[in-house]
Amino acid sequence: MNAYFKDQITQFKQQNQNRGRLLVSCPDQPGIVSAISNFLFYYNANIIESSQYSTNPEGGVFFIRIEFECPLLKEKAAEMKQKFTEIAAKFSMEWSLTPVYKVKKAAIFVSKELHCLQELLWEWQSGDLMTEIALVIGNHEEARDVVEGLNIPFYYIPANKEIREQVEEKQLQLLQDYEVDVIVLARYMQILTSRFVAANPNKIINIHHSFLPAFIGARPYERAYDRGVKLIGATSHYVTNDLDEGPIIEQDIARVDHRANVDTLKKIGRSIERSVLARAVKWHIEDRIIVHQNKTIVF
Amino acid sequence: MNAYFKDQITQFKQQNQNRGRLLVSCPDQPGIVSAISNFLFYYNANIIESSQYSTNPEGGVFFIRIEFECPLLKEKAAEMKQKFTEIAAKFSMEWSLTPVYKVKKAAIFVSKELHCLQELLWEWQSGDLMTEIALVIGNHEEARDVVEGLNIPFYYIPANKEIREQVEEKQLQLLQDYEVDVIVLARYMQILTSRFVAANPNKIINIHHSFLPAFIGARPYERAYDRGVKLIGATSHYVTNDLDEGPIIEQDIARVDHRANVDTLKKIGRSIERSVLARAVKWHIEDRIIVHQNKTIVF
Amino acid sequence: MNAYFKDQITQFKQQNQNRGRLLVSCPDQPGIVSAISNFLFYYNANIIESSQYSTNPEGGVFFIRIEFECPLLKEKAAEMKQKFTEIAAKFSMEWSLTPVYKVKKAAIFVSKELHCLQELLWEWQSGDLMTEIALVIGNHEEARDVVEGLNIPFYYIPANKEIREQVEEKQLQLLQDYEVDVIVLARYMQILTSRFVAANPNKIINIHHSFLPAFIGARPYERAYDRGVKLIGATSHYVTNDLDEGPIIEQDIARVDHRANVDTLKKIGRSIERSVLARAVKWHIEDRIIVHQNKTIVF
Amino acid sequence: MNAYFKDQITQFKQQNQNRGRLLVSCPDQPGIVSAISNFLFYYNANIIESSQYSTNPEGGVFFIRIEFECPLLKEKAAEMKQKFTEIAAKFSMEWSLTPVYKVKKAAIFVSKELHCLQELLWEWQSGDLMTEIALVIGNHEEARDVVEGLNIPFYYIPANKEIREQVEEKQLQLLQDYEVDVIVLARYMQILTSRFVAANPNKIINIHHSFLPAFIGARPYERAYDRGVKLIGATSHYVTNDLDEGPIIEQDIARVDHRANVDTLKKIGRSIERSVLARAVKWHIEDRIIVHQNKTIVF
Questions:
Q1: How many CB pairs lie under 8 A apart between chains A and D?
Q2: Do D128 and A267 touch (CB under 8 A)?
Q3: Partner residue facing C228 (CB), from D252, D258, D294
Q4: Is B11 inside a domain boundary?
Q5: Are B125 and B5 in contact (CB under 8 A)?
Q6: pLDDT tens digits, one per residue of D136-154
Q7: Is D28 a catalytic residue?
Q8: Is D46 in contact with B43 (CB distance < 8 Å)?
Q9: Site from D33, D53, D69 to mutate, B interface, most B CB atoms within 10 angstroms
Q10: Is C11 inside a domain boundary?
Q11: Gap between the Cα atoms of D52 and B218, Å rounded
């Protein structure tokens, strides 16, 4: 299967060698779209997909994501970035220009429960998650077989409160060695230190097994059961130093009734968790998310 | 339209003159269903619909709802109730035996926003909510026209914190005069005293404009907006003396995205609120709900 | 209530006096967005919302919808339209530039079942459907009371196969007299002649009570019941001369099970029909729909 | 992982050694539930779950599914079956009494696309699908690695129109050798002969990649694309000799829009197909389905 995926990723890179993505946020005012589209037209780029949003046309913040096809993008990219700084300066833009063929590298963190990991591996194998899974780190051994079976490096790093800092040092070293772009916590049941989080702003994606902000913290399914809710949910969000309070990327729910005990809730929940996390990771990989004031704009 | 509904309700009563509903809860043990079904068979009743649930087959609580067709039910009902007390005693049952032709009487409480009231009136006019809407009480005048236009008595009783007790005295008097079975708070924006609540246990149905237990309390849409959630919801529950903590009857959600401001959330929310409340009221009217330890079993 | 709505519509017109919408479709090529955004910038317009889509970046068709805020739009509109013809010619565009304050005029056609009509009236009264409901035409009298109660003209025009042409002549005359922009068939149970349809291209919106293309034609709920489906649906589409084959605007479904008989399916279905039709009408009113080769692009 | 599953299945069998399921259908009349529950009470069985349905209380067909806990079920089962024949005769019942510890044996048929197979394997490994996957038969080799990796026998039997009968002979032999109870067509792209179907009535479960009865037959996603639908679906059904016309077990849909091309529809569809098929198989395994006149009652 891994061979199949290598074919897919090679094919993807070839098909997208001229494809770029431009993300911009800046104070709203007339002329932004005009300036950006003139810039792209100057480089003979064709806009394939464009989404924009403004918090308020008067005095608000403007966001845009453009996906474009530009002949000879590899050759032009450096010059384009250089030129775009002028427009960016004029409109006080925060921006990024990303070539699509540079596939992002992901690290997946996991503990004992494998359903979220397996969904990601599956999507990845079927070519629906165009990332390079650089490595998987587990604080338990459960995931080793399935991960190594796909020729992905697996690192077993036991973890607990007492040794948190040493553990994270090892993890950070690995992330650096593998040049990781995004960290996915696929039901990784350890809390990260503020140092680790600060080193990876808007790069750590977590799945919380409840419909946040309901049931923040531990044992959400048990508490959902006790409260007698009629829907349970899952939430994927960027990790910040406020536990379960980071910018929400995606949420979903499933209907339950009085017959569901805690185990049934967990089973139903697993199915929501895996699809919610997979969608969030996919959107991140495709540069569809802009974080603004602890919220996400998802284009 | 009222004439049309009167026809419908008359027709409903005739069609259901032999229809009864039996609700039972008791400690689980073998022989319960056998005892109940023998009892019904003795009275020549045919079981039309039956739902049961046990919290735990060993040492748990057993719940059953049976809808049956029994020839000459009106004549037999008193004797059946008398006889059933023996079975009930043997199994330590809490139970009710309700004839379906006795349509329940509802009071609707409303403030300024009418969407929940209108959904209920609509369902009622179309014959989907088989209740008698005995009266509508508003602490504002907004609802008068639409209510009186359907020949339903409307009582304007202004309310605020200072006069809460006098207000509730008037309300309780009206509920008694009209022999009301169920009170629906259709976005009634006043808090009820514990005295009022205690006088109507498991009889007051509220709609909360959030996916409880998220955003308990005031201004849920504003807080949902601030948190950047990707789904908003509504919750219908029985009112207890713990604010927004009563047994949940029904919940639903709708998907939202970054483009939705507070007003948009409210508009989307109104549509969820009205359908969630209507379903909860319908289930109550049809004797489908059993409350057990601050949760609902909905059959 | 009508007074309330008049306030709302007046307020809406004032708030949107400078708001315009530009819809464009043309062969895809680089430079389109640049040309359009330069044009808007020249008139000092700020782009508020913009959605685009291309069937294929190479040799496909490009579609864009832009909502913009332009100071003194009323004064400039004529000149802008004049100027835009040059760009349109260069790129072979089909296009429209619509001022938002010019609220569209709708005619609703209805037969005996009122649920779709009532949903539209409700959305309209609550200010969620920014259209002027110019008149309602019924081939039965059932709708008169509710329509006239809102001070909307109601025309009773009995109809059947034999007198179809005379009936439509009257209808077309009324549509002309009231300067109607969009015709909504809210469960109007008469077939329209090709002449009527041809006179109103992409202007007649129908609701079909099934998940098209399943159960094309008559008695869809009966046939859904016979087939034992587990979901039922509704479809809103523009009317063409191929029965139930026009461009689909919106669809939705609800879950059903073996307990649902035909009547239950119809009840459940009514709730889907009314929300699906309301969404389709709203999108049409807001110029969100472009028809292309018997499909809709809904921005 | 297989070891893990073996533990699970052993544990399941032990936990369910006294658990039985009774499925009954017969002409409706008073006394059925009474007779059945007396029977169970006589054997000291406690009813855990019970669902019933009647097509019509007067002259209709009555269906019931009871799950019960009966001490020493293994020892009593033969006698209970013997005794139940008397009740069955009296009420003209079709019935089955199944011990839960006897886990059903499944054969999975697959072609090139593996997503449905993988979902089933996954659910099975996580203990959510309590079946013994006896073997997998493929008319292509794609599935071999993943199947054999789980120590499940894989049989590669190439198939096409010309050799259909020889192929099916081999398959039928294997089904007999492995004592298979249920055959799952997990995107198996071959048509079965009437002989094969007749030999396995209500035992073959298929997944069709459309929302039946829309897009019966080949290339449903292509046709959904051409029609411009706004929802796509999948349908799981028992196989009969009318192509795609067998009793529907489960259906589900996902929302799509104009941006989805055929490939996107297929990707979205895969996710619906796998969950719809998994639910159908689970319900079958748990004896929740009764087929009646080309429809299913799913308890």
A1: 15
A2: yes
A3: D294
A4: no
A5: yes
A6: 999 999 999 999 989 999 9
A7: no
A8: no
A9: D33
A10: no
A11: 43
Asked whether the beta carbons of residue C296 and residue D228 sit closer than 8 angstroms, the reply is yes
Q: What is the tens place of the pLDDT at every residue in A192-208?
A: 999 999 999 999 999 99
Question: Could you tell me where the DSSP H helices lie in B16-58?
Answer: 32-42
Which residue of chain C comes nearest to A69, CA vs CA?
C57
Stretch D198-216: mean pLDDT: 95
User: What is the dihedral angle through the alpha carbons of D118, D119, D122, D126, rounded to the nearest 10 degrees?
Assistant: -170
Q: Are residues D132 and D53 in the same domain?
A: no
Residue C272 tokens read as: 């889907």
Task: Reply yes or no on whether the pLDDT at C1 is more than 80.
Answer: no
- My answer on whether D149 and D241 are in the same domain is yes
Q: What is the pLDDT of residues A235-290, one digit of tens each?
A: 999 999 988 999 999 999 999 999 999 999 999 999 999 999 999 999 999 999 99
How far apart, in whole angstroms, are the C-alpha atoms of residue C125 and residue C129? Answer: 8
Nearest CA in chain A to C45: A30
Domain match, B151 and B264 both: yes
Cβ-proximal residues to B82 (8 Å cutoff; 6+ apart), any chain: none
Closest chain C residue to B129, measured at CA: C267
Chain B touching partners, 3 or more CB pairs below 8 A: A, C, D
Task: Answer whether residue A58 is part of any domain.
Answer: yes
Which tokens hold the place of C177?
């007299």
A chain contacts of residue B294, beta-carbon cutoff 8 Å: 228
What number of C-beta contacts closer than 8 Å exist between B and D? 62
C3 pLDDT band (50/70/90 cuts)? low
Cα diameter, chain C? 63
The residues near A167 (Cβ < 8 Å, ≥ 6 apart) are A139, A157, A158, A159, A190
Confidence of residue C4 (pLDDT cuts 50, 70, 90): low
Nearest CA in chain A to B54: A259
* pLDDT, averaged across chain C: 94
Structure tokens at C80: 């802008």
- Domain count for chain B, please give it: 2
Looking at the structure, tell me whether residues B82 and B175 fall in a common domain. Answer: no
For C267, which of B115, B118, B128 is closest by C-beta distance?
Answer: B128
Q: Are residues B81 and B164 in the same domain?
A: no
Claim to verify: residue D200 and residue D109 sit in the same structural domain: yes
Please name the chains neighbouring A, where neighbouring means 3+ C-beta pairs under 8 angstroms.
Answer: B, C, D
> Which range has highest mean pLDDT (C6-10, D124-128, D273-277)?
D273-277
| Of the residues A49, A72, A99, the one at which a domain ends | A99
Chains near D, with 3+ CB pairs < 8 A?
A, B, C
**Domain of C261, in residue numbers:** 105-298
DSSP for A85-151, please give it: HHHHHHHT-EEEEEETTSPPEEEEEE-S--HHHHHHHHHHHTTSS--EEEEEEESSSTTHHHHHTTT
Give the three-state DSSP class for C208: strand
Cβ–Cβ gap A228/B53 under 8 Å: no
Q: What is the pLDDT along chain B (299 residues), one digit of tens a residue?
A: 466 677 888 899 999 999 999 999 999 999 999 999 999 999 999 999 999 999 987 889 999 999 999 999 999 999 999 999 999 999 999 999 999 999 999 999 999 999 999 999 988 988 889 999 999 999 999 999 999 989 999 999 999 999 999 999 999 999 999 999 999 999 999 999 999 999 999 999 999 999 999 999 999 999 999 999 999 999 999 999 988 999 999 999 999 999 999 999 999 999 999 999 999 999 999 999 999 999 999 99
Interface list for chain B against chain C, based on CB atoms closer than 8 Å: 1, 115, 118, 122, 126, 128, 145-146, 149, 267, 270-271, 275
As a whole number of angstroms, the longest Cα–Cα distance in chain A is 63
Question: Residue A231 and residue B228: Cβ atoms within 8 Å?
Answer: no
Is there a domain that residue B198 lies in? yes
pLDDT at A58 over 90: no
Co-location of B87 and B122 in the same domain: no
Query: Residue D72 maps to which CATH number?
Result: 3.30.70.260
